[in-house]
Amino acid sequence: MSELRDLPADLAAGSDKRSYVIKVDGYSRVKGMIGHGDKVKSAPFSVGGYDWVLWFYPNGSDITHYEAGYVSVFLALDSGFATDVRAKFRISLLDKNGEPDITRSKTNPECIFSSKGSFKGFRDFIGRAYLENPRNLSNDSVSIMCHVTVVKNIHKGNRSGLIPPRNLQQHLGDLLKSMDGADVTFHVGGESFLAHRAVLAARSSVFRAELFGGMKEKAGGPIEISDMESDVFKALLHFIYTDEYEPVPEMTDGCEARREAVMAGHLLVAADRYNIEGLKLICEERVCNLINPDIVATSLALAEQHGFHGIKDACFEFLASPSNLEAMMSISRIAAHQFSRSWLLASCPPN
């Protein structure tokens, strides 16, 4: 089963855009029938006057990624007459509500598909352990969206040329990696991080006040940030420069949900501290989506301590189910106490 979603054409950039959704029903059966390097192909779909297909490898596109536990996904050109087609694309896992999971999306910048069968994509698109978690695998089906933009040559009079792609995000990401021209140093959790004052100030009103305003730190000296882990600050910088949430590396020890919830919670506190609204919304959504009996008490404590009302409401909604409440209370007396305290405060607020 597949679905085609039309999006408005970006006429100013001379491009055609479209999103295509491939739904793999009976995922477990399909995965068991084929080996690594074997793919499931979507039906052809048209974008920008060219035919395309998605290749889905439930056991990885090669032995290395099979053993590493990855699912691979690629976009391939399927038009026999086409040569040197310029396109960029983003592949996303869809959640149970049919919306892209922004923490499980990968973008391929503008590239050239040379001829039919030319393909680009991600051998390490997503870990099978994450994909097969019951919270992600709905009725044993997997839905993946590919948003494709074909960039066309624009002809005007006797001149022709390609309008440069809008790749500010990519350039800032490259700047984050190289740190060319960095003019401020942070010490966080025993590690040092270089950054650019102008970028931080443009993205955060708190950083702007600290670096250029009345709270301006001593010029030239490193800035100490306490009460924050180095990996949290690294993820914060990644979002500031790229506008992308950096997911927790996927593991196979069964603790991925807890680890990701903890990281999302710490990053949410950091985003709140530095007034980075986009990251706050993403992290709050991640914490809400990851709530389970094992972490609901800590999520509730986080919500109460920092006033994250959306998370608090999600915890109460989760615990409204008697089976969820029983499971939570069986895990820890501390969790039961935390819930009882929160429930009383919510039911009987102070005058």
Outline of this structure?
The longest helix has 18 residues, at 256-273. The chain has helices spanning 27-33, 63-67, 128-131, 168-178, 197-203, 205-212, 230-242, 256-273, 277-290, 296-306, 309-319, 322-331, 333-347, and strands spanning 2-6, 15-25, 40-41, 45-47, 50-57, 70-77, 85-94, 100-113, 119-127, 141-151, 154-156, 159-161, 184-188, 191-195, 223-225. It is built from 13 helices and 15 strands.
Strand content: 25-35%
Unreliable stretches covering 5 or more consecutive residues? 1-14, 156-160, 346-351
The SSE order reads EEHEEEHEEEEHEEEHEEHHEHHHHHHH
Q: Rg from C-alpha positions? A: 23 Å
Looking at the overall shape, the CATH architecture of the domain at 2-161 is Sandwich
**Roughly how many Å apart are the termini?**
56 Å
Structural class: alpha+beta
For the sheet with most strands, the description reads: 5 strands, antiparallel
DSSP summary, beta strand count: 15
CATH topology of the domain at 2-161: the name is Apoptosis, Tumor Necrosis Factor Receptor Associated Protein 2, Chain A
- Determine the mean pLDDT: 80
Shape: globular
SS element count, helices: 13
Question: Can you identify the CATH superfamily of the domain at 2-161?
Answer: Apoptosis, Tumor Necrosis Factor Receptor Associated Protein 2, Chain A
Assembly annotation:
single chain
